[in-house]
């Protein structure tokens, strides 16, 4: 049984009629969105706030009504995946390159729920390279500043060209030995000129939905 499908679909249970729902990006929340599509077809009324072009396209295909961030008074709930979740429910996100919009939507939501298969659960963050979104202007210089923090850096490429986010920026994937002080690192990185934001989501997740080895739901 697909673990991402199990946790992704479980999150749909949190959605109630009339809610404004932040729709995350990635292969786990894909299953949440598919389930919401089926529920909308069956009569559920929601408005989705997509965190990426990819998610917006999927939601449109499923006839989930969408709105812009600035068109709604509040977001009731945001649901998204993660690349790593530590024991304090701090996250690394941005494997799919959507971290900036994902953080904006998660922060604005009254409740932020993370869907994570067991492979994402870690004691300490850092085995997954931390995505940092940077503006293209001076990107090499920005990368040098990040490297000075003792991280190994790699400009994300697709087909030999810099990967471009939905915001027209680049992603630098950064391997730090182990991220023991995520809040500190998040602030230090965001203070570097050229950095738009990074994939550390500290103290933002309200609940994490995962499963145990017997595929039973675990709510953290
Ligand atoms: C995209 C993300 C995703 O939520 C994260 O990469 C997890 O993806 P997946 O569910 O495909 O494993 O942060 O920017």
UniProtKB/TrEMBL annotation:
Q: Which Pfam families match?
A: Rib_5-P_isom_A
The UniProt keyword set, sorted, is: Isomerase
Reactions this protein catalyses: aldehydo-D-ribose 5-phosphate = D-ribulose 5-phosphate
Q: How does it assemble?
A: Homodimer.
Q: What is this protein called?
A: Ribose-5-phosphate isomerase A
Q: Where does substrate bind?
A: 25-28, 80-83, 93-96, 120
Indicate whether Cell membrane appears among the record's keywords. Answer: no
The family database entries (NCBIfam families) matched by this protein are listed as:
PRK00702.1, rpiA
Q: Which organism is it from?
A: Neobacillus citreus
For this record, the Gene Ontology CC terms, alphabetical, are:
cytosol
Q: Which GO terms describe its biological process?
A: D-ribose metabolic process; pentose-phosphate shunt, non-oxidative branch
Q: Describe its function.
A: Catalyzes the reversible conversion of ribose-5-phosphate to ribulose 5-phosphate.
| Family per record | Belongs to the ribose 5-phosphate isomerase family.
MF term (GO), any: ribose-5-phosphate isomerase activity
Q: Which domain of life is it from?
A: Bacteria
Q: What's the EC number here? A: 5.3.1.6
Instruction: Write out the catalytic residues in the record.
Output: 102 (proton acceptor)
**What pathway or pathways are given for this protein in its record?**
Carbohydrate degradation; pentose phosphate pathway; D-ribose 5-phosphate from D-ribulose 5-phosphate (non-oxidative stage): step 1/1
